[in-house]
Task: structure prediction
Amino acid sequence: MPIAAHPRLASLVLLGIASLALSACHPGNKEAKLLRESCDAGDANACNKFAAKLQKGEYVLRDEPRAAVLFDTACTRGIGDGCASLGVMLQRGSGGVKRGTIRAIKLFQQGCDGRAMEGCARLGALYRTGRGVPRDLARAVSLFQQSCDGASMFGCSHLASLYAAGEGVAQDYAKAATLYKKGCDAKVALACAGLGRLHGAGTGVERNDSLAISLFRQSCYQRERAGCFDLAMSYETGRNGRQNYERAATLYNDECDERNGEACARLAGLAERGAGTNRDTKRAASLRKRACDLGYLEACPKPKATT
Result:
């Protein structure tokens, strides 16, 4: 039967056509088209901006491999942000780009030297952990401070975590809370998880379990592993009266798969009791062994006392 014979279907089709027409006229589409044309004409800055749109699928079809090529082009032509963005893709192995820490480090340094604050922040994170470079906390603090001063919320969030832990700087919970809030407001998942921990403990800010759980959930939704683990802990312990063993078990299982030893051990405890998951002592033992193998020493067998 023709579409016209179905008034509701016909109206939906017309609405869809109208939406597409309006979308095509959206200023964002025009901007993306102008950036593409300028990039094709040799404007390196336009290539970098157009690559960012391709990476996000913002008013253009998402195309990460092409974005990587354009970030590389922009970087080669001296655009620091292009170097930093390509470095992130290499670090994650996203968009069909082969993962490569060594080149990513060089790109972050190029980006930082080119005043791309995200490059400075990412480089700082590597110096903090000693991944691919010698561990250097003083250098990490300097890079995080530089990037935070330059409005990189990723840098501010990492700087906050140093103040919260007293790592490389004097411990200052209030300063950590201020920086975390800044980062979380900018939707940096790491910052939301950190701020949630401060609210959960009442350090640097007032204790607020409801807010802590909300922040953990927000962080986990953005795929921040620490936020998911803290959310699982909240469900297991019943913080603010919201005990949910089943949800805790699901989250612990996900985190265990991501090589979090403590998550494996806590899931083992739930499996042993049959809380939120089937009671299974063999699985519990296997999970504890995995936790130990992942470096969570609390799950390792205790040495027998000698007489």
